[in-house]
Fold this protein.
Amino acid sequence: MNYPNTLKNLIDSFKKLPGIGEKTAERLAFSMLNFKDEDIDVFSKSIKDVKEKIKKCNICSNLTEDDICLICSDNNRENDILCVVEDTKGLMLFEKIGFFKGKYHILDGLISPLNGINPEDLNIDRLLKRVEQEKIKEVIIAVKPTIEGETTALYILKILEGLEVVVSKLAHGVPIGADMEYLDPMTLEMAMFDRKKISE
Amino acid sequence: MNYPNTLKNLIDSFKKLPGIGEKTAERLAFSMLNFKDEDIDVFSKSIKDVKEKIKKCNICSNLTEDDICLICSDNNRENDILCVVEDTKGLMLFEKIGFFKGKYHILDGLISPLNGINPEDLNIDRLLKRVEQEKIKEVIIAVKPTIEGETTALYILKILEGLEVVVSKLAHGVPIGADMEYLDPMTLEMAMFDRKKISE
């Protein structure tokens, strides 16, 4: 295509984003021709800012502009309960729903020997230190229920052994509103195994 | 959500793009944290550049960084045939397929009295001048087959009346590969009316 160079550069940049193909990149780039000047400035600047200013929280590894993230520095949250998640997306999931009032610990991955990811590559050492120093009463492991997730959960359980802390993990079972016939056998088995008594 | 400000700004910027909602904006913004530094620079710069440097070609109104666009200044193209399109997207459609070797004229819209768009709001005057000055032999009207498109086509036909130029418009008919039963009656009627004899 005979696009002017600047337009071509912008299209190419959009194409580097996940899930954005040629056609969408063109549509997005064209739409920017109609952006207001101040929106252009903000967009252009925030792209650079995000890369330059966003770093990881020194405590929980959440994204932050300061040394300590907004959640870790929030004194209104419960200080003695930690929700352990794989990445920032996991944290966001819970924050969006908003019912969890404790703090987080981001592992920055899951143990996966096949992919060369060992416990020392993850943010697990600091979890141990936090449990001791911050007098954590409960660690809720909220990672995905895959082999990597289960391995990681077992590893965390092991290193926290002997400490005065309750370790729990998310319940498995039938999702609310789910069509039972499309559920995988493992989930159904778990749901049966963890069944809750509802009679007196 | 407790996003750091810079991240929030980037998400908000992405949300201003067409078809990008909250979730996609978040996904795109997060993905940029893993961009290479040089990609970040190019992206940030091209957003500003596109708004600052891209303007309309003095001849055909195509997008360009110079006074004259790449197509108008291409001496290898046929100089006496013009394809009249509504906007740059229309031009791109033909350029992508690549069979049209003439030049273009972009109207920057279609006549639509209901929306207050009259012929003088469009790039039609210049079309008349071009046909005269550039000794155009054929003007192909390639606008969409709506009331606005047909009105615009009729208007162009009228103002070119009396000049030594053939005015044509795209054929209507059954699209290749189309499922006949989903075609609208108007298209079928047109296809029947413009039927082509295939026997000797």
